[in-house]
Amino acid sequence: MVRTHKKIDLWTTVSFCLLALFILFLIYPLFGILRQAVIGSDGKLTGQQFVKFFSKQYYLDTIVNSFAVSIAVTVVTLLLGVPFSYFYSFYRLKGAKFLFIISVLCCMSAPFIGAYSWILLLGRNGIVTQVIEGVFKIKVGNIYGFRGILLVQALKLYPLVFIYMNGAFKNIDSTLMEASENMGCTGMRRFWKVVLQLSMPTALAASLIVFMRAFADFGTPLLIGEGYRTFPVEIYNQYLGETGQDHNFAAAISVIAVIVTAVVFLLQKWATGKYNFSMNALHPIEKKKPKGIAGFFIYLYCYLLIFIAFMPQIYIVYLSFRNCDQAIFKPGFSLGSYKLAMNKLLVRSIKNTMLLGGLSLAIIILVAILIAYLVVRRNNRLNNAIDTISMLPYIMPGSVIGIALIIAFGRKPLALTGTITIMVISLVIRRMPYTIRSATATLMQIPISIEEAAISLGASKIKTFFKVTVPMMTNGIVSGAILSFVSIITEMSSGIILYNNKTITLTMSAYVAIGRGNYGLACAFSAILTVLTTIILMAYLFISKNEDIRM
After folding, report:
1. Measured distance CA(551)–CA(544) in Å, rounded
2. Is residue 492 a contact partner of residue 219, using CB atoms and an 8 Å limit?
3. Does residue 48 form part of some domain?
4. Which pLDDT does position 551 carry in this prediction?
5. What average pLDDT does this structure show over 160-176?
């Protein structure tokens, strides 16, 4: 009797390889955090660290504060972003492309640059503070604390709402608007009852993204929080704080952070399920020309909002050319800060930024293509599990990822701490979801009949994949990859846990300069990072040819 060996399917092998990689570099590190949180110094199971957190108001306040500021930021960004998106989508605005580009630049800048810029503008000795108090004799207070965090994060994150809602508004069919108008539903009533209800799933999705970004933000509350302590900052202080370190307690707080963000994510998914419908604009809404006093206020609102939001970046670039002696800016202009930057790791920072970005992006693109194909074309439980696991970092603070990797790979046999490798692993894990979602969405729109036609003409499945499927996915892959790359070069929350002098990036160089009080140097690093981000986003807009960015 002749035995026939069952041929191993290539894509099944790919699935198991991807699952093994995720287990090694994501699941295993997260279990390492859990183990460090529940295992005491005597090696026995204990809940002491969790008791410590929940029994002291000092620590409970951090989670309350994070929730308070994140909810407030979410509400404010909706109040700012939804009207902005409505005006952009329903009216023919002059300079619309400019409004779009500046808005995207606001939300894709390094997370702490806005906070640092607002300190220079509205801090105790900020230029705006001095002008208002000196000329108008009005006491404006200062940027620090809850109000400052809310201001900085809301102005940075409202473009996320704008971008998401812009896509939703474009999917509304004009016949629905006409029908509601015929029934006497017009103006604000139509906006609340029709437009907003039809775009509610997108509004909830945007709210989740804003909440997660605000909750996980590390740079803003670290720089301007002062007495207002938040969750991510407390994790950092417990793990790398100058006044004392408690790695087990930091691990316990990290576990709580993962649980909290997971619960918020599930609640959002439940709420979105209440609006389970889809839209397809067979008759797209025709934009109107803003007229009269209403048109004036529409323009005023849009341009004033982006001016205020982008003002910090403009001011940073301006200050980078001012004469500066450490923390004091002097009259006159020079390239002194840039010359100092050349002597202070500028070349190494740019090299590391591009090297880390390039290596991480190459891996992200490869893995994203494979996962997208497995999920769309070979949908099964294993591949759906891989897709779900790949999205976990999307809802976790970066500091948690950084600590998890140090715990997992801080000792032999895989001692990676302090190397380029661990930085690449962190960046791939953190920023992969952007490209995966973009590639998956693109592949879902490509008919499988095209691939079947190629196979029927004699092409192998592998050749069809590389010669037909991947080229057709190019636009989605490139769009997601560029967004991933921008996020990579501005990454801070995990980088601050993992970096050292050899692996320092532009973002970390700017942060270190701020910490040492060398503001001119910090402005130079930040300006270079802003210009680099601008170039990449301009490339995105040129390549993608569309305005519906998915982040």
Report:
1. 14
2. yes
3. no
4. 47
5. 73
**Tokens of residue 456, six digits:** 């029927």
How many folded domains does the chain comprise?
A: 1
pLDDT tens for each residue of 171-197: 676 666 666 666 666 666 666 666 667
Q: Which domain holds residue 102?
A: 68-229+284-320
Q: What is the CATH number of the domain that holds 291?
A: 1.10.3720.10
Q: With contact defined as beta carbons under 8 Å apart, do 288 and 88 qualify? A: no
pLDDT of residue 386 exceeding 80, the answer is yes
The Cα angle at residue 103 between residues 101 and 107, in degrees rounded to 5: 115
Q: Is residue 95 part of a domain?
A: yes
Distance CA 297, CA 290 (A): 9
Pairwise CA distance, residues 325 & 90, whole Å = 49
Position 228 pLDDT exceeds 70: yes
Give the integer Cα–Cα distance in Å for 349 and 525: 9
Q: Per residue, what are the HEC states of 172-213?
A: CEHHHHHHHHHCCCCHHHHHHHHHHHHCHHHHHHHHHHHHHH
CA 412, CA 405: separation in Å to the nearest integer? 13
User: Cα–Cα distance between 428 and 72 in angstroms, integer?
Assistant: 30
Q: What is the CA radius of gyration of the chain?
A: 25
What are the backbone dihedrals phi and psi of residue 39, each rounded to the nearest 5 degrees, phi first?
-105, 120
pLDDT digits over 442-462, tens only? 787 778 888 888 888 888 778
**What 8-state DSSP symbol labels residue 419?**
S
